[in-house]
Amino acid sequence: MGRYVNESIKRLATELKAGLLRLRKGYIDQAEALIYILDPTQAYPYEFVVYRLTGYRAPASHPPMEPLSGRTLRADLLQLILDVCDSFELRASDYSEPVHDALSLARRFSVSSKTLQRWRRRGMPARRMVFPDRKRRIAFLESTVNWFVRAHDRQVKRSMRFTRLKPEDRDFIVRRARRMAAFTHCSLSDVAKRLAARTGRASETIRYTIRKHDLEHPDDAVFPYLSAPLGDQEKTVIYRCFLNGVPVPGLAEKYRRTRGSVYRIINEMRARQFLQRPVNYVYNPQFDLPGADEILRSAGTSPAISSSESPSRSVQKSPADLPPYLRSLYDVPLLTAEQERALFRLYNYLKYKADKVRRQIDENHIRTAQLKQIESLLLQANMVKNQIIRANLRLVVSIAKKHLGGPQSLFELISDGNVSLIKAVEKFDYSRGYRFSTYASWAIMRNFARSVPKERYQLDRFTTGQEEILDIAGALQSYDSGQVNLSELRESIDVMLTQLSPRERAILIDHYGLDESGRPKTFDQLGRQLGISKERVRQIELQALRKLRLIMRPRSAEMLS
Fold this sequence. Notes:
By secondary structure, the chain is mainly alpha-helical. The protein has helices spanning 7-17, 21-37, 46-54, 70-86, 102-109, 113-121, 142-151, 153-163, 167-183, 188-199, 203-216, 224-227, 232-243, 248-254, 259-276, 292-300, 303-306, 324-327, 337-358, 368-402, 410-427, 436-451, 465-469, 471-479, 486-497, 502-511, 523-530, 534-552, 554-560; strands spanning 43-44, 68-69, 99-101, 127-130, 136-141.
């Protein structure tokens, strides 16, 4: 969505875009009709704007809003028209009157595209329509053009007089431009500026005249290299130079291109990257609910989320055996279940919105506003992601400490664990009900199964099944202030036991007292409960433990990833 001065009109545009398809064309036409009668020096109530566009009056219980100035309201309505046009396929054939694109209108009035942009800023409404060639372009209705010409007659005539060149004037400009390009090696922009100062014409008029001559006379072009399009390799080099801080004027001079063409190349490469690289997120039906943007954003940025400390999970004192550079991790408070859900919801929603805008990119008509919106959404998502990661870094430290003793140092283990933590944030589905610490612990343990030598995961024949199963739960115990309730412990165990069959899982839980009762049962009791012999119960348990050992081995962990 484009930039708005008034936040209330921005919200209104969002609501109109989500309205019925058959009504959206009417919203656009009514917005243009309202622009016709606006007085820039007057102020207008928001309720008046809503009524003019939709035909509905706000309820009496609706809180009054600040009046909108006519000048800012006009600019917002111009943007609203374009945004609503982008929400559906508005065709030129939907209107009974003639429809002009920017190129045909510029030829009609003998003006440049820059002049048309100035007219639009002065209040000439433009739509974005699909033409018979199936391409979406900026369009102007015949009635719109006639209204603007009547309202700005002096300005239109001045623009037409100023840009209309006689044949001898064009010949002079082309001749002087050719000499300057041959002897001074100036770029098109430099030639246009110098000739503009010499002739009193606008530099855009000079540039347009030279480019038109080169297109019509390719064998006698002043700047023949501008007619040949750049290849993908050259475009990639220009884009990389831009990312590395090379200014656009320097790139334009080096490749003998206009600044505008360099910016178009940069936007083309940005759009191509977005189209080739999908945005991955965990979808939730809440994202498509009416008003989801306001609800999810307000929930994710509420004081409860950004508060420095929560009563249930206060800042924990760092262990004394940690290096000083790791103790600062314990200054970041842990997230409550509510905070965690809100942040993950907001994180995935921002990426969902970015992907939705990404899919609307048209390679034949790249809009800078779209690219900026995608980058802004991904940047916001990354900030939320970093907030989640900071609150869970001590989990990595806690698990890494349990795996010390091999060739890897604590710093190396933490580095490996941080990579797993980042991947876990990207893949975690908050709607399934698990806490993120459980899911992240499982991911970190599996990563250590790859990186820590295999022999450390070969269990001694005297190791008990309970120690093996509670490995992840033990990491959580040291992570969560030394206090683990049975529900979180059971949650941690369930994540690992999901790899087993229901009967194997039931035998391990009942035999080692891993349920809420905490009371272990003997093989004999389990046999009577399941209707099998106690020897068979023992065999099933050994089979389940062998599966868990395979899961924890490096090769098996790689197969499960």
